[in-house]
Amino acid sequence: MPHELSFIGIYFPPILANFALGLLLALGTAFVLNHLRMSRLLGYPPLVFISLVVLYTCLLSKFVIPA
Q: Which of 21-25, 43-47, 48-52, 63-67 is predicted with the least confidence, judged by mean pLDDT?
């Protein structure tokens, strides 16, 4: 089983796909938190956003696209 993903003949590592999906999920979560005005309850929202990206990337690499 290959350890790379192929997209239009270009090979890239699976962690790149996990990071891209994690970033999109974190953006969606941040949008919902801002829309519901819950981000004002957080101490430092940019750090929470980075934490969400890391959390989603780790969860995706564990369960969706294993490296």
A: 63-67
* Cα gap 18→40, rounded to integer Å: 28
Contact 67, 13 (CB under 8 A): yes
CB–CB of 39/30 below 8 Å?
Answer: yes
Burial class (CB in 10 A: 0-12, 13-18, 19+), 26: buried
Q: What's the pLDDT tens digit per position in 7-18?
A: 888 888 888 989
Q: pTM of the entire structure?
A: 0.85
The three-state (H, E, C) secondary structure of 12-61, written as one string: ECHHHHHHHHHHHHHHHHHHHHHHCCCHHHCCCHHHHHHHHHHHHHHHHH
